[in-house]
Amino acid sequence: MQNDPTIRRYESAGGTIVYKLPVEAFPKHFTNCYLIMTDPITLLDAGSGQENSNASMQDCFRRLGDEFDERVQVFDVGRLILTHGHIDHFGGANFVVEQSGAELGIHELDVSVIQSFKERLILNTKNLHLFLDRAGVSTSTVEKMLNMNKWSKDLFHPAHVDFTFDEGPLPGTPFEIFHTPGHCPGQVCIRLDDILFTADHVLQRITPNQSPEFITRYTGLGHYMESLQKVRSVPGITLGLGGHEGDMTELHRRIDETLAFHETRLDKTLALCDRPKSIKEVSLELFGERQDYHVLLAFLETGAHMEYLYERGRIGVTNIEEVELEYNPVLLFQRQ
After folding, report:
1. Which long-range contacts does 61-70 make (Cβ < 8 Å, 24+ apart)?
2. Neighbouring-strand partners of residue 22
3. Cβ–Cβ contacts within 10 Å for residue 171, how many?
4. CA 287, 87, 38 angle in degrees (round to 5)?
5. Local structure of residue 292 (DSSP, 8 states)
6. Measuring CA to CA, which residue among 299, 314, 315, 310 is closest to residue 134?
7. What single-letter DSSP state applies at residue 174?
8. What is residue 292's predicted lDDT score, i.e. its pLDDT?
9. Is the pLDDT of residue 75 over 70?
10. pTM for the whole thing?
């Protein structure tokens, strides 16, 4: 991921000023939060909530005054909208609300992430454990993966959500919501005139990591690719602003590149299933040896693509008798 720590100023076709606040949510991991000068002032996303992330947020507001003579602080925010339920975007919600008293909103499918965080984390972890076992990951590695997946998330305390949304104009605001599940159940893209805030759905250089819907509903590659097509059909967009990296002046081209990337990865995955293989085996051939958290990301990405192929009848389970007799054995897949 290519970080851009520069604060940038944009103006929508309707004259609304937008500032990109590059918050260092984790060391060397920047999340683009957007300060939108509506009435009341709107902030999109809030960083991770870790102490350094909150300090980075405050520093961005200080730099607004120094670089753009925009005298606004965190306590001036009246509305906080979270684009999706991933910790580097929602973790700072408590900090922003405590500082400002802002109303907090998120898509209805991610409300439980904010209001019942521990419950959702526990259920997600259980499903992840089942997935990793089925993928052929060793017991010791599974434990490491589960611990890494929970890292930093235990620090978040549940917050009250003031309003939710699904699809269409957001009442009392100039925003239009597009529900774009795939990367996250409640992932949304938000339109302001000719600007589309794409969050993690479309990014300038990389494609967001995919995860099997087996673990969390409304994720999965099928939902993601359908959502890409939905966003591509939105007319009149001249600028895409992502949750990471830089801006996108040719959003349609970037969407086409992302779709083509996944089609190519699906072809590679299918070709690797020339004989019965586990998700772990295919992942190692797709990505090679990975380190630390990237091991888990590779398993999830591989699992999402194999799930997509399996659901469409392009690969099948070859050890179904074993699956019938045993509790959660390793699944072996082969091209049909």
Report:
1. 61/21, 63/7, 64/7, 64/19, 64/21, 64/35, 67/7, 68/7, 68/9, 68/19, 70/19
2. 32
3. 8
4. 120
5. T
6. 299
7. S
8. 85
9. yes
10. 0.96
